[in-house]
Design goal:
By secondary structure, the chain is α+β, with helices and mostly antiparallel strands. 53% of the residues lie in helices and 21% in strands. The mean pLDDT is 76.
Length: 206
């Protein structure tokens, strides 16, 4: 069949007369048209799938690039500040060492109790009790509770507390209780729960 005849059949083709159940007996022009449409659909679907896959890969690569860029900036910052970090580490080690020196050893605890007693008497207080209570073993240190009971006036109490706070060893004061003296002499009783700490030795159980 000549090309002119095929084109003429395409022009004369009526869509309403198409019977898809009899494709095998369609004129050549109809079959060619159907073939072109099928090929176009297949090519379009393949192209869409290919482009979609490329888009997913592009999005993944973009996100990965951003992640690597953030990591690079972080490492670059760390490298630029490495010397400063080293200086800070040395300072932290020195500070930690200084704090450890402020924690009394077992052999120093009796002397610490004597120092507290002397601070109280030097402040003009009457010392009724300075005694060590049961140790409390924590995860990294041992807490040593100290019960302090003194008698005097507000001014003497303030001087005593200031002296304790300025001691070279770490002593913290908790739970102040002040009450009137029963003998009517105008003095006050003060009960303090103090705490000092020592570094936990290996093998001690919490």
């Amino acid at each position: 069949m000549a090309l002119a005849d095929t084109l003429k059949q395409l022009q004369e083709l009526d869509v309403n007369d198409i019977d898809f159940s009899r494709v095998g007996v369609w004129p050549l022009a109809g079959r060619l048209t159907l073939l072109v449409l099928v090929v176009a659909v297949l090519v379009g679907a393949g192209y869409y799938a290919w482009v979609g896959d490329l888009y997913d890969k592009l999005e993944f690569a973009t996100n990965k690039e951003q992640e690597l860029f953030v990591q690079f900036e972080k490492k670059q910052f760390e490298a630029a500040n490495l010397d400063a970090y080293r200086v800070q580490l040395v300072e932290m080690e020195e500070t930690f060492g200084a704090l450890l020196k402020q924690l009394p050893k077992d052999t120093e605890v009796p002397g610490l109790l004597e120092d507290i007693d002397e601070y109280g008497r030097g402040s003009g207080l009457t010392i009724e009790k300075v005694e060590l209570e049961k140790e409390l073993v924590g995860e990294f240190y041992v807490e040593l509770p100290i019960k302090i009971q003194v008698q005097g006036g507000y001014h003497e109490f303030g001087s005593f507390i200031s002296g304790i706070a300025g001691m070279p060893r770490i002593v913290t004061l908790h739970d102040f209780t002040i009450s009137s003296n029963r003998d009517g002499a105008g003095l006050l009783n003060m009960l303090i729960n103090a705490k000092t700490y020592r570094y936990k030795d290996q093998g001690e159980e919490g």
